[in-house]
Automatic annotation (TrEMBL):
This is DUF8152 domain-containing protein. Residues 10-92 form the DUF8152 domain. InterPro entries: DUF8152 (IPR058465). The lineage of its organism: Archaea, Methanobacteriati, Methanobacteriota, Stenosarchaea group, Halobacteria.
Amino acid sequence: MTDATLDRLVSDLHDHLAATATRPVREDASRWLGEAEAVAGDLAGGPLPDDEVVRARLGHVEHLLSNVETTEDDEADDHVAAARDALDEALAVLDDEA
């Protein structure tokens, strides 16, 4: 896969997390999602740093999302699921490049 694929996946990850900010989610989930969005936004905001930095930041996002079981909003839950899918794909891209 190419860097463009990783860029797209990181952007998708961020977009789905950002979409949860406009939804009426549980307060505890909101804190985790907000921090995950900020970390993903740092990556999506410009050229990607080296793979190890990207992997570490995506690992942090993965940890943050592991604390979100439900948002109690179906649309937000769909965005969280899509964000997890983009995250898994991005990590797979990094593993393929290693």
